[in-house]
Amino acid sequence: MRLQVVLLTLLLAGTVHAGLPAPVAAAFKRAGIAPSGIGIEVIEITSGRNVLSLNPGLPLNPASTMKLLTTSAALDLLGPTYSFTTEAYRRGTLQSGLLQGDLILRGSGDPKLVIENFWLFLRKIRAQGVRDIRGNLVLDRSAFDDTVIDPALFDGDPLKAYNVGPDALLLNFYALAVSFMPDRAQGVVKVRLDPALGAYAIRPPQLTSGECTGDWRTAISATLDPAGARFDGPYALGCGEKSWQLSPYQLSRNRYLELVFRQLWTELGGTFEGSVVDGVLTTDAVALAQWESPTMPELIRDVNKYSNNVMARQLFLTLGSTVQLQPASIAASRSAIAGWLATRQIDATGLVLENGAGLSRLERISAHTLGALLMAAYRAPTMPEFVSSLPLVGYDGTMRKRLRFEGVSGHAHIKTGSLQDVRSIAGYVQAASGKQFAVVCLINDPNAARGGEAQDALLQWVYENK
Q1: Helix, strand or coil for residue 300?
Q2: Up-side HSE of residue 116: CA atoms within 13 Å toward CB?
Q3: Does the reported pTM lie above 0.90?
Q4: Residue 55 DSSP symbol
Q5: Cα distance between residue 410 and residue 454, in whole Å
Q6: Is 289 helix (H, G, I), strand (E, B) or coil?
Q7: How far apart are the first and last CA of the chain?
Q8: What are the angstrom distances between the C-alpha of 454 and each of 51, 105, 305, 441?
């Protein structure tokens, strides 16, 4: 009877996570994650030998590991020296610093036109002799199509900075860093916006006594619209100085750019009396200056190490406009990536692309496709740039706090992904033997949030045993 019980126990254990290494199987079992929602692929890079698989062909939601597809395609199709150009033109006469006409800014989708870069760009325009602008500021966004992305579509929270949609003239991620600084002496909360928006009105939250408990942001209702920034609710003195990243989605992108432009242009000694309007570059315009973004390796490093959704979406759309030679659109980008995968002979069965960032409930990819993608990227001439864009386990990016004191620390570059009911990892492990492995583990399960232990166990197992 006892032997029958032991055999039955072993049989049941085998049906739960058959074929997985013991520490990995045990971690999945503790987490209560069923094998039907797990996709694993481990491949030795030199030989191409598959050393571990579980549901490799099952299309699963990859969360942010989908960024590996977007960044690998961008690095390969656009090239390692590719950069985005933002251009400035004038229309009208320019004499003694006075522009009797319009200043035109034409964007190409630069994902990193942050405030400091925009300020340097405006300095270049000033250096061309432009000081006082009597016409309008014309914004040419024609590099991207005019599809409007609902910022509330993904999770119903349009204030979240990660919900910002693509824009050919995306300034500073269309975001504000809001700093709250309690002033005990005056009994108020001082609020600072970065970037500063000039005359934009600010109404701070109410300062209250007491300790800072829980998530202090839940007590504050934030509104950022044309009338100003309003923060209704209490802010405890014990919270000290805090910062909150928000997207002013109720403030149009043109108005946001206008407020920043007026502030910076005034600081640079210029004046601007016109309005900010949409338009396109015309043949009578005269070139003034241009700004070059960082090159592709630096851009994909930001995307992968810090899982920047906004930058990923910019790159995704750019693939459509550059490869298909037409204004960027989701359909064009899907077509460009499908063609690229086909030329690399990567099986993309079950692939579903929505925005290329993984910030989606619809996107799907299999562990097999991700594994093949990692293999192709490792064998490409741009391998060093791609691998170094991934978080180094135990050291930086989204993996800086994981496996810090295990042997695999510093020996793996791993991209992570997480959504509700989704946890994923994908990247490279250099085993203690010196061999290199591509590793993918996708989890789609109600208990996926508990899956980190199993994924860490998988990385450590590859490091120790392969």
Answers
A1: helix
A2: 1
A3: yes
A4: S
A5: 19
A6: strand
A7: 39
A8: 17, 50, 21, 9
